[in-house]
Amino acid sequence: MKNKRTVLVTGGCGFIGSNFVRLLLDDYPEWRVINLDKLTYAGNLRNLKGITEGENYRMVKADICDAEAIENLFIEEEIDTVVHFAAESHVDRSISGPAEFIQTNIIGTFTLLEAARKNWLAEGVDDSREKCFLHVSTDEVYGSLGETGFFTESTAFDPRSPYSASKASSDHLVSAYFHTYGLPVRITNCSNNYGPYQFPEKLIPLVFNNSMLGKELPVYGDGKNIRDWLYVEDHCEAIVEVLKKGENGKSYNIGGNNEKQNIEVVTLICDILDRKIGLLESGEPRSSLITFVKDRLGHDRRYAIDPTRIRDELGWEPKVTFESGIEKTLDWYLENQDWVKAIVDGSYQNYYQEMYGK
Ligand code: NAD
Ligand code: TYD
Q: Which strand (E) or helix (H) includes residue 230?
């Protein structure tokens, strides 16, 4: 029998997934990582630059909706743990084209659950190794808050966008597999992540990229929508804590204790970049690029997390304040402008062919 816990990470070439793969390979050499990713527009092999296949790591290009491929992988690799990140993740795209969100986020999660059920709960299966299916979800399943209040794990789901509705559906399926079949599942619902390797369609890297190009910085509506910002490395560490100490059948909210209005975030990025690299060529500050645009349809007003459960039961708290996290993040984007450029010019989509020749 193999001697390492084998962790199937889905979506490991995306933003959070790649940070998570890196954390496991750096800090948990006793775990073997199988990264399964379809390499959609959001998947980028350069997010894992420097990581090569070997005893502890294998990359599999596949779709989580492909039942045969997933079931074969469970058998071939003797998967013990699933950390499920793969998803369509951008709210604006879910508004303009929801079909992919239903397919990947709901059918894809169902396909993974079925593979785990068939493999882990079958008669005669060796269950001496602990199994765990950890589903990574979002605080957006809870809907929108007014000026006060926080989401707890018992807040009723009230998703408002096709994205959050598809994630809520997948959360319900995961939970149903626990209650119906006894599948060992855990769910995490986190707030907005930021940090290295985030695709430049999301607010923070989009503002970085546009401001570097002297393009307008679109702020939806009045800019006073509030998000709670969680530094991606804090999030990844929280997931490890849930894997190590969490309880099956439970969900855990993960927040950053950093509630900010969008306009505050955008202005702060402009000010930091002005300080770090000087004003725009025109001599204007970057904040002069801020442009208020038509609001997003169904735009949730405020998200905020009550962190009591994960703090009291697992002893996890975020370490990174928004002020230090945003500095680190902008330093990373400044030092890795080639990474951003390859996305903007589309060349990042050739990396798989270049690395694997197919
Ligand atoms: P991302 O869009 O950066 O990456 C998604 C990854 O999944 C990509 O590598 C993509 O190629 C892969 N993928 C997409 N469809 C696939 C499919 N059918 N089969 C296999 N792989 C597929 O996403 P992210 O921001 O890293 O988010 C990861 C997870 O965390 C998602 O489930 C998302 O809902 C959740 N989440 C994200 C945030 C956030 O702020 N980014 C907040 C809360 C929850
Ligand atoms: P986003 O990064 O898309 O994350 P989410 O929608 O999952 O919260 O957006 C963060 C906030 O920033 C959200 O309130 C929408 C707003 N936003 C803008 O104002 N302008 C933009 O160009 C984008 C992408 C987002």
A: strand 226-231
Query: Does residue 190 contact residue 255 with C-beta atoms inside 8 Å?
Result: yes
Report which bound ligand comes closest to the CA of 303. 2
Residue that has been written with the tokens 């790591």 in this structure:
57
Q: 110 CA distance to ligand 2 centroid (A)?
A: 28
- Choose the residue to mutate in 21, 85, 198 for probing ligand 1, maximizing ligand atoms within 8 Å of C-beta: 85
Say which ligand is closest to the CA of 201. Answer: 2
Tens-digit pLDDT string for the chain (358 aa): 577 899 999 999 999 999 999 999 999 999 999 999 999 999 999 999 999 999 999 999 999 999 999 999 999 999 999 999 999 999 999 999 999 999 999 999 999 999 999 999 988 777 778 999 999 999 999 999 999 999 999 999 999 999 999 999 999 999 999 999 999 999 999 999 999 999 999 999 999 999 999 999 999 999 999 999 999 999 999 999 999 999 999 999 999 999 999 999 999 999 999 999 999 999 999 999 999 999 999 999 999 999 999 999 999 999 999 999 999 999 999 999 999 999 999 999 988 888 887 7
* 5-265+275-280+287-348 topology per CATH: Rossmann fold (3.40.50)
How many whole angstroms from 111 Cα to the centroid of ligand 2? 30
Q: Give the residue extent of every domain in the chain.
A: 5-265+275-280+287-348
Q: Which residues contact 354 (CB under 8 A, 6 or more apart)?
A: none
Q: What angle do CA 124, 125, 127 make, to 5 degrees?
A: 120
